[in-house]
């Protein structure tokens, strides 16, 4: 999957992998919806994504209805509907590249 298209659980999974973690995927039996554990909400929780933004020196800039981010450490740009989504896409791309294989259960 293209890093620039990652969102939701797939993006959070990729961030966890970029951090060297092995995130666990939960699949709800009735709905068959895949979800990650709460500690992997990097793209929605500032308490989790914020430290990555600060450590990686990711610059956030609103551009109309979206956000543009730039990583000084990795010389990369990324875009997203929210600052955290854009920043986490940038982080994943800097660590794992422009294409990431995510578990099939997390593909949307």
Helices, strands, pairings?
Blueprint (H helix, E strand, L loop, with lengths): L7 H11 L6 E3 L6 E3 L9 H10 L2 E6 L2 E6 L4 E5 L2 H14 L12
Antiparallel strand pairs: 1-2, 3-4, 4-5
Helix pairs in contact: 1-3, 2-3
Radius of gyration over C-alpha positions, nearest whole angstrom: 13 Å
Helicity, as a percent range: 25-40%
How many DSSP helices? 3
Give the overall shape, derived from the CA principal axes: globular
CATH class: Alpha Beta
CA distance, first residue to last residue: 10 Å
What is the strand tally?
5
Number of domains: 1
In order across it, which strands form the biggest sheet? 3-4-5
Report on the biggest sheet: 3 strands, antiparallel
Beta-strand content bin: 15-25%
> Residue-averaged pLDDT, rounded?
87
Structural summary, described in words:
This protein is an alpha+beta fold and 108 residues long. The protein has one domain (3-96): Bacillus phage protein (2-Layer Sandwich). 32% of the residues lie in helices and 21% in strands. The chain is built from three helices and five strands, in the order αββαβββα. The strands form two sheets. Strands 3-4-5 form a three-stranded antiparallel sheet. Strand 4 and strand 5 form a beta hairpin. The N and C termini lie close together (10 Å). The mean pLDDT is 87.
